[in-house]
Amino acid sequence: MSKSCFSTFSLCLFFLHIFLCLLLTQSAHESAIVTQIPGFNATLPSKHYAGYVTVDENHGRNLYYYFVVSEGKPSEDPVVLWLNGGPGCSSFDGFIYEHGPFNFEAANTKGGLPTLHLNPYSWSKVSSIIYLDSPAGVGFSYSQNETDYTTGDIKTASDTHAFLLKWFELYPEFLSNPFFIAGESYAGVYVPTLALEVAKGIDAGVKPKLNFKGYMVGNGVTDEQFDGNALVPFAHGMGLISDDLYEEVNNECNGNFYNPASDTCASKLETVDQDIDAVNIYNILEPCYHGTETEKITASYIRLPSSFQTLGETERPFPVRKRIFGRAWPLRAPVRDGIVPTWPQLMTGHRAPPCTDDEIANSWLNNEAVREAIHTAKKSVVSSWDLCTDKISYHRDAGSMIKFHKNLTSRGYRALIFSGDHDMCVPFTGSQAWTRSIGYKIVDQWRPWLSNDQVAGYTQGYDKNLTFLTIKGAGHTVPEYKPREALDFYKRFLAGLPI
């Protein structure tokens, strides 16, 4: 074969390879596209895709995703991976109750299909979002090898990184878009551990190369000491305990509230628990849903206060949404190294704790027409969707997240740590303290930030692109309580603009 013929032949092979790749990508898109949404009787505002990515062929470990394409400029807008916490809770929590494309209206009859309306404050207004059920065993994600349901921080980060690499191979048209990772609650662990996996992969030349720019954590579990010591100062600052009790607790516990060193300290902390008994820990301004029974919580490795057992006992129900399940760790019980019980595993004889009503999510996601429309596994594989699962055995094995944040911000990645300032489960006092403890120079002094020409909270900016932000009046799930304000800070952060 002549040199010119060989060159022509090589060129033909190259274009054939490109054509086949495009064909395979197109077929993947076609099989994953969501053409209609039961409960929504209008044209979708953007393209939606849903399906599975296999992260372990040998075990048949499959992670389920729901992908909402940006309603703005899909070819340019950022792509954001959203993760809910638990551990063991589905990211449909964020999709249905927080910042997804729809607002869900409960059916008139119990078990009926909810009615869906467009959400004017959906985060898909300014970005494409991947809602991922992780790890395997959560939501619609599953494995054919049940040993995979014993997992932890490190394995979850590794699997999710594998998911991202394969996902971007399926959707290569989004590879050049700025990519961010976001989440809340126990995703305060998921997000930085995954972000560091992504950063190390980029440094090592792993393909495809992700255009990773930064990450966001909302009311996130971070560090045993800072999280564990956050409640008492929060309760005092919010007027939930007296000056006298605060001084007594400080004197007896020497500032160590999460691991009392004496019986006297423990006794004073019990008095704190009694004072905030029956307050909604996820938003102290809101009532709890009135449960019909008092549940009891058990844990093998840490004492849980009596206040968490009686949450939900109130005469006035939640006005809009009556579910608080699976958001973060119980009151004054920091997540420690070792086995972390999932929420259903904490309960005795019941799948849901007090202050809980997940009727909308359960009725929609367990509807056969919905499951078929969004391409979930058959019921013989994943029998039902639960907001939070008891299927997994989860180990906290990555330690404090502070070292991860230091590593990532020192590499130049942007980080936004945001807190609803009325959340008592992962109080802003802890997040504010650990961000300050890193020791970075303050480059944007504490100041109010605005949304709709009103003070929406306060922010402080540090060197190396680390920002701490509060959202005034918001609880544990910020976009649920303050959707307009959440969309405002979200789009400013993604765009690299001051908040």
Kindly describe this structure.
The protein is globular and about 65 Å long. The strands form 3 sheets. Strands 1, 2, 3, 6, 7, 9, 10, 13, 14, 15 and 16 form an 11-stranded mixed β-sheet that branches. It has a 3-stranded mixed β-sheet with strand order 8-12-11. Residues 290-332 and 348-356 have low confidence and may be disordered. The protein has 499 residues and is α/β, with parallel strands linked by helices. The chain is 33% helix and 18% strand. Helix 3 packs across helix 4 and helix 7 (243-253) packs antiparallel against helix 8 (263-275). The longest helix is centred in the first third of the chain and has 30 residues, at 3-32. InterPro entries: AB_hydrolase_fold (IPR029058), Peptidase_S10 (IPR001563), Ser_caboxypep_his_AS (IPR033124), Ser_caboxypep_ser_AS (IPR018202). It is an enzyme of class 3 (hydrolase).
Beta-strand proportion: 15-25%
Question: Based on the structure, what is the oligomeric state of the protein chains?
Answer: single chain
Q: On the 0-100 scale, what is the average pLDDT?
A: 86
The largest β sheet comes out as: 11 strands, mixed
Low-confidence stretches: 290-332, 348-356
Class by helix and strand content?
alpha/beta
The whole-angstrom Rg is: 23 Å
Distance between the termini: 63 Å
Question: Approximately how much helix is present in the residues?
Answer: 25-40%
How would you sum up the global shape? globular
Number of strands: 16
Helix count, per DSSP? Answer: 16
